[in-house]
Task: inverse folding
């Protein structure tokens, strides 16, 4: 359904993370190696990044495939950042929302992406949608499942939930309303990363030189890449990664993280 990637760490050009690696997100748009659903991610792309001293990220999004955008390579070569979130999209359903439907979605300091699909969309999320303030539903950026899932996450963030809890509780709510959904969510506020593995692939790389990458699949063959088990919440900083097993929706809670789940950088 899509491939996505988030990074926090030392400043890097966008292209060093998204274009230069042999199996970078750029290449994953037409030749993903581990994608279980769909084969080509040509229905839009986007990247959001943080500039030094500005907590509100910039975004660059387009409705077409990343390889067809002749400006992106130049932008990726010169723009540097210490935190980003990017995605290439394979649309669940064809729609008319163009780049508005392409991740990352954004609000304030947050960037968000959804890799997967909500089963039975849109009817399956009628009940969760009724829990949102009407103005949030009426102002959805796009008419797709990812935009509604983002609204549910954002509602929790605005209520004061920390990022990992907001993702995990949203996954449980959506999975309960729409069993069989694939809900790999990715969120950053520029300092940390939160992600869920729920029905699709997720990996992380704690780079020996500093920084953490969380992605749908590895962008190279570095042996330090680690696969995240399904039904897991990942939270990461520039130096540490924490994996917390998630319960099924009927359990209404996160399992406590075992002590061995924390992976300090080596």
Result:
């Amino acid at each position: 359904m899509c491939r996505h990637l988030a990074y926090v760490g030392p400043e890097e050009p966008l292209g060093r993370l998204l274009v230069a690696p042999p199996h970078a997100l750029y290449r994953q748009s037409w030749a993903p190696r581990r994608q279980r659903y769909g084969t080509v991610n040509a229905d839009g792309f986007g990247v959001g990044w943080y500039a030094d001293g500005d907590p509100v990220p910039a975004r660059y999004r387009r409705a077409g495939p990343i390889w067809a955008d002749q400006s992106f390579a130049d932008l990726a070569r010169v723009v540097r950042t210490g935190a980003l979130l990017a995605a290439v999209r394979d649309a669940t359903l064809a729609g008319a929302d163009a780049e508005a439907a392409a991740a990352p979605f954004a609000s304030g300091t947050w960037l968000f992406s959804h890799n997967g699909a909500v089963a039975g969309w849109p009817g399956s999320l009628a009940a969760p949608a009724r829990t949102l303030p009407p103005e949030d539903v009426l102002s959805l950026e796009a008419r797709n499942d990812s935009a509604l899932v983002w609204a549910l996450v954002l509602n929790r963030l605005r209520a004061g939930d920390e990022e990992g809890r907001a993702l995990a509780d949203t996954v449980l709510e959506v999975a309960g309303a729409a069993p069989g959904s694939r809900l790999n969510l990715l969120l950053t506020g520029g300092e940390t990363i939160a992600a869920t593995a729920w029905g699709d692939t997720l990996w992380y790389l704690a780079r020996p030189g500093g920084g953490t990458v969380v992605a749908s699949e590895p962008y190279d063959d570095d042996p330090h890449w680690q696969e995240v088990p399904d039904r897991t919440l990942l939270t990461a900083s520039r130096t540490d990664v924490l994996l917390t097993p998630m319960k099924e929706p009927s359990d209404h809670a996160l399992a406590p993280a075992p002590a061995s789940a924390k992976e300090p950088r080596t």
In short: The chain has seven helices and 14 strands.
